[in-house]
Amino acid sequence: MEFGFLPMLGLNLDYPLVLSTIIEHAAATFADTELVSYGGPDVTRSSYYEAAQRSRRLASSLSCLGIGPDCLVGSLAWNTHRHFELFYGVSGIGGILHTANPRLAPAQILYTINFAGYRTLFIDPDTLALAEQLAPRLKTIDRFVLMTSRRAMPATNLANVLCHEDLIDAGDPAFAWPELDERLACMLCFTSGTTGQPKGVLYSHRGTVLSALSIGGGNGWALSASDVVLGIPGFFHCNGWGVPFLGPMYGAKLVLPGRRADDAWLYRLIMDEGVTIAAAVPTIWLGLLEHCRATGQGLGPLRRIFSGGTAPPAAMIESYLRDYGVHVSHGWGMTETTHGATISFVPDGLSDDAAVAAMRTQGKPLYGNEIRIVDDEDRPLSSDGSTPGHLQCRGHWTAGAYFKRPELDLQTKDGWMRTGDIAVIDPDNTLHIVDRAKDAIKSGGEWISSQALEEAATQHPAVQEAAVVAVQHARWQERPFMIVVLAENATVAVEDLRSHLQRFVPKWWLPDAIAFAAELPHGPTGKLQKDELRRRVADGIIAPAIASSPSGV
Ligand code: ADP
Description:
By secondary structure, the chain is α/β, with parallel strands linked by helices. The protein has 3 domains: 20-260, ANL, N-terminal domain (Rossmann fold); 370-436, Roll (Luciferase, domain 3); 441-547, ANL, C-terminal domain (GMP Synthetase, Chain A, domain 3, 2-Layer Sandwich). The protein has a 9-stranded mixed β-sheet with strand order 2-1-11-10-12-13-14-15-16. A hairpin with a 2-residue loop joins strand 21 (441-443) and strand 22. It is globular and about 70 Å long. Adenosine-5'-diphosphate binds at residues 191-195, 308-311, 330-335, 362, 419-421, 433, 436, 525, 527.
């Protein structure tokens, strides 16, 4: 047959990749699979069938309130079943859910909501006090929805407050999802502001569905309907790392912990709910490990943990694997890549040592992401396992621009996203993050990795935590300055620590100065606040224990 100059299109149905297809799939296929929510005084147990019905009811009530295509709706809330159904209820009618981050500083929360500029904000009973504090400075919000039942509605001085369960009760359980273009925006997340004012990343239905499909597969979370997933990362941090979509897409039971994440409680949750897979930042995993060691308990059903957001200590990976038989999937990603873009790849049959070595890397790209390193002029560098360069990535769910900030130079001329990280890539495409570009120390024109120095320091038994920042140097431009928090009742001499570091890093990387501090400042996702540390060092609030001259640079 002749088609002239027309391209020959495939004859598949034109069935868009939209989020409502995920919850409807779960309702039809895994109707009885449990959704367990600990976000309140009582545990709520429901099913994907009920969750889909409640999402439709919510969508129909929101439509009646005039919320529809392109309308932003905000949430300031923890991981609960009501927050879960908000993802579907809002996006299913073409709306966009901004998951505001209650862990940001109040000024930053205000900035993100005012910058996005919408009318309706959903809040939890335990973010109510925060919302009351923010309300006078929220410029566009004129309606709050309290995510609770009518019976449990707390007293509040907020004006125009609706009850979440009233919206559910009033909604139509048979509401038909409107047909939407898969390229429409569905969610808005802001970066955690480690590198300046939070920046908004606007996700599409298509990118979100494809990313969940890819990350849930065998080389990623390896999910199936036999799994029980515990989603610890806040829904406001990269959509809870995709958990609200991964659970229903793969038919896994979903456990939502509300706002709690203390060690003993998490341990009980894992045991009581039979959790097989859980995701969180290294701080949480270190705490759980300490709890297990202190109590002598094993980790029962848990077979795999996901660690992301920052590099986990090697000793942690090793202990989970050797002492508890738990596989650590170490992923790299950022708000701009929707969530995980690479994940440590551990083929069957590796020895424990080789498996630990593989888990220490940031892994390989999942399908849908490509990575490369470039020089200062965006010229590609070799993936030879030793050359460091600026990491760039591209893919179906990588951000191409920031929300309402077209002036920010996120994308290169040839369509790659600048990550702001420095990395080395092996010939087999394994990623090693060296540092954030603004945290790496450029000494005599060469990079020194603050992360590698911090990792080396924490391998000393007396060191609980370490941070390294650059200080200006007349000859070398920048030199490393290390700040150490000692373990309880521990001491170490500065020179002993330097000797210890020298076992792990080149001599010219050794910090010129080491200071001791009682604690280090952390951001809302547990990351070190290096800007604040740089300020404290510059202001002399943190002073070196001993200053020595640059060593053999
Ligand atoms: P913010 O940029 O505000 O901190 P993100 O959560 O988007 O918020 O942070 C992404 C950054 O976190 C990455 O660019 C990288 O520097 C760091 N990061 C994420 N995962 C890892 C990892 N596994 N190892 C090292 N660094 C990581």
